[in-house]
Predict the structure.
Amino acid sequence: MAETIKVGIADLNVVKPPDLITTIGLGSCVGIAIRDKHSKIGGLVHVMLPNSKEVKSSNNLAKFADTGIPELVRRLEKMGALRSRMVAKIAGGATMFSFQSKSELTGIGDRNVAATKAALKALNIPILAEDTGANYGRTVTFNPETGDYEVKAVGKPLKVI
Amino acid sequence: MADTRDLTIEEMSDQYFDVLKEIGNIGAGNATTALSTMLGTKVDMMVPKVRLMEFKEVGTTLGGEEQLVAGIYLVVDGDIHGSIMFVQKKESARAMVQKLMGMPSDEEDFTEMELSALKEIGNVITGAYLNSLSTLTNLTIYPSVPDVCIDMAGAILSVPAIEFGAISDKMLLIQTDFADDDDLSGYFILVPDEESDAKILHALGF
């Protein structure tokens, strides 16, 4: 019986087919789905902030793009996935409010997407598809078997990337 | 208390919690009066609940991460810096807007006019709240023009969660239930930055 594993905010997990993995309501956060094309082992991380070095409280690895992505890769490798066969799809990084606080957190969605791309590049994991930016929330579901990344948004047709 | 600057949100004393609750209480009281005047009806208020929550739980508070909510968000400047958000379920927001405008609407989406009315409601409610904080602490607080967004609870709440995220793994939620014939409950999420926490505590004599 296929299950759908839920990943919370600043959280990550890994799955094997036929299970699916999902995260609900990505705003400026980014949901990064990575899978090994061959072994079909896949995982999802829901990162909130770009850089763990910029903040004091950084003990949760899944909270940041620069630590969450390597941690997800490590967990996938532990399950038997090979780094050289890994591919990624990303979604989220929206700007929910037209002004977002004038603090250094301005444009956090864009910064999360940029940090995500940098972290994936550093690990040599190609990005096959993305649905990022704009001003609306997204719920995503990843199928490690097919690599399909389903993106749902309020009042918009279902998108598969 | 000596130096509160290094106090993390988890370590905040029960007393500080009580203070925030009291500010929440007075603020919500002012907000209720303002709301009542604005809507021209009697509005009751429940005692607000103050909770420190894990990010993971936050989405479930408002009926699940996919529950449609209206978030009204403002940035706060002056002696303290941070942001404040007033969140309510979409139906509550609609009920409030219809009361204010005095006409029903069967449209699925909010019209420009309704969104503007919603912003105004948010302005009044958060303004009343910030006023009590300012009066109690004697700190100058300037709110920005509000912005409104209607989307999934998870996506809306991630905005203050991210701001909290820079300092903690938890965030502070003040739940206020306004009651009249309809259910008009809403939540305040106050995000002062670290220095501001210390300033608020200091101003209150801690």
Notes: The interface with chain A takes residues 8, 55-56, 58-59, 64-66, 68, 71, 73, 75, 77, 81, 83, 109, 144-145, 147, 149-159, 161-163, 165-169, 193 of chain B (CB under 8 Å).
